[in-house]
Amino acid sequence: MFDPATTALLRAMFDEVCEDVPRLQTGARTHVASKILEAAAKGETAPESLKQVGREALHDAPTMWR
Fold first, then answer.
1. pTM (2 decimals)?
2. Among 29, 50, 51, 52, which residue's Cβ finds the most Cβ atoms within 10 Å?
3. How far are the Cα atoms of 3, 22, 43 from residue 7, in angstroms, in the given order?
4. Residue whose C-alpha is closest to residue 5's, from 38, 33, 47, 42
């Protein structure tokens, strides 16, 4: 469980990375969210690092998710 400040940061980074991903593309959005959460669970809380993790997850997602 993350504290409220970390949760807000994770949500903000997810929203920023996925701003151009349609809400109906749940596979891609879920993939990005899971990678951001995974990084945070390992102790990564720097905004730019989390954003980079999210961007890489979006870039590496199978094309059917884009």
1. 0.89
2. 50
3. 6, 22, 13
4. 47
